């Protein structure tokens, strides 16, 4: 399961070896099975949401547009790391080329930056829908939604491009064993022969700025939402509004709590928290939200639940009709 025997000499300057999860070698088969299952749920669930939203003309509101983009980002995030993880845990194939490692790093961190921006956009969508319902379609036009999506993507690219450039131009002349199951920034930076502090500080500062500002605006949005909801006279209207926002809050908690724990443990608690705990936190942070997001939205959003059930029923009966 461990693959090649690792040492601290550079066997191939163009190759890294991903160590997986230190100390969990005896559980690699179960990890491979679990990750494969979660990845299948993530890809199929998010693809189903994208298909349903794109095909159904009644699901063309801004909320569903952002949800569709979120599902696509979740697929990219999970696909960037999980297939290689499964390969490590199932067959011991832990080698990854220099270029593939930094490409993986770029997509992983860019996708996380896009996702936090999308969660902010979805919080803003709920704020407008509940606090300014009469102006909802006038404020969130197609051009505004497209502009928000492009801005979020450009922000992620602007953040990640200097970080990738700084780290990829460092000399790697010692160990080529990455003590992680994917090319996580801090894990790769520690292998550099030169001082990795500039890129590490850049990552910490800009991650904190992006996530901190997004969380602050999300918190402000939901504070205004709660104020408006509890000001409604109808209990039924209150419950409907809270239920609509419940799925968004659940998704945000799944994303931000393990994400922030992973970032600050890797930076501040690296000598206090066991390495396998750090790696597990980072791994679960990338796979749990993409897996649970479609389940949460599918269960809690009535329109999507009904459309998915209708689509699956139609496909089932079509297959039965063709078979007979």
From TrEMBL:
Keyword Transmembrane among record annotations: yes
The entry's keywords: Cell membrane, G-protein coupled receptor, Membrane, Olfaction, Receptor, Sensory transduction, Transducer, Transmembrane, Transmembrane helix
SUPFAM superfamilies: Family A G protein-coupled receptor-like
Membrane topology, record value: Multi-pass membrane protein
Subcellular location(s) per record: Cell membrane; Membrane
A GO CC term assigned to this protein in UniProt: plasma membrane
Pfam family, one: 7tm_4
A single GO BP: G protein-coupled receptor signaling pathway
Domain of life where this protein originates: Eukaryota
Membrane among keywords: yes
Entry-linked Gene3D superfamilies: Rhodopsin 7-helix transmembrane proteins (1.20.1070.10)
Transmembrane regions listed in the UniProt entry: 28-52, 64-86, 106-124, 144-167, 204-225, 246-267, 279-299
Domain G-protein coupled receptors family 1 profile as annotated: residue spans: 45-297
InterPro entries, per database record: GPCR_Rhodpsn (IPR000276), GPCR_Rhodpsn_7TM (IPR017452), Olfact_rcpt (IPR000725), OR51/52/56-like (IPR050402)
GO MF entry, a single one: G protein-coupled receptor activity
Family membership: Belongs to the G-protein coupled receptor 1 family.
Function: Odorant receptor.
Name this protein carries in UniProt: Olfactory receptor
